[in-house]
Amino acid sequence: MRATDKIEKLFIRKVLRQEYLPGTQIPSEREMAAEYEVGRPVIREVLQRLERDGWLTIRSGQRAVVNDYWKEGNLMTIVHLLAEEESIPDEFIVHLLELRKSISPAYVKDAVIHKPLSVVSLLKESEMVPDEAAAFAEYDWLLQRGLAAASPNPIYLLILNSFGDLYVKMATHYFYEASYREASRSYYRELMEASLSDDGIQAEFLVNEMMEKSIQMWKAQTKVK
């Protein structure tokens, strides 16, 4: 790993662990160069990258200031967060689930309207999924990708692809509860019925309803408020 990449990861980890708080100044270039045993040009490059991705603000003649990444971040901030699974704040997972609730009904509706047979084929596979957490997580991820791919809007799949590793890991944890697996099986069956009827509106309703249930179940399981 290049020195710039390593230092960037360490900095982001400190922000996520609240060792660097929003609004506070970080050490000077000279101090950071000494700490990481690199030249100042390396530190300067790291700081420029961090500013580009919303983590801090550089001020001429002054020490850089840590940003509130929830407000100043961008798509690259999400990429960095996903690379730091052990440091991801609990609320970030809830926010991801809320994002999924916002976009899933749309791409599933599109998929049912444009490629109902593909959707039925995907859902039919749920009948053969073993009743275990890891298998359910893997299937649910493949289902989501397949549904997004069946939508005529390719952006949905690009968004989902960003969350693959984290999605499967969190879904495995979620599906440890047998009742959650059964709830999903019931959901898959209902969604299949809507797809067989080419009923995109009903599919959209079912997805929205299930996504809201999954948020509440995740909160109950992880004790997140």
From TrEMBL:
The keyword DNA-binding applies. Pfam families: FadR_C, GntR. InterPro entries: FadR_C (IPR028374), TF_FadR/GntR_C (IPR008920), Tscrpt_reg_HTH_GntR (IPR000524), WH-like_DNA-bd_sf (IPR036388), WH_DNA-bd_sf (IPR036390). The keyword Magnesium does not apply. SMART domains: HTH_GNTR. Gene3D superfamilies: GntR ligand-binding domain-like, Winged helix-like DNA-binding domain superfamily/Winged helix DNA-binding domain. Keywords: DNA-binding, Transcription, Transcription regulation. This is GntR family negative regulator for fad regulon and positive regulator of fabA. CDD domains: WHTH_GntR. Residues 1-69 form the HTH gntR-type domain.
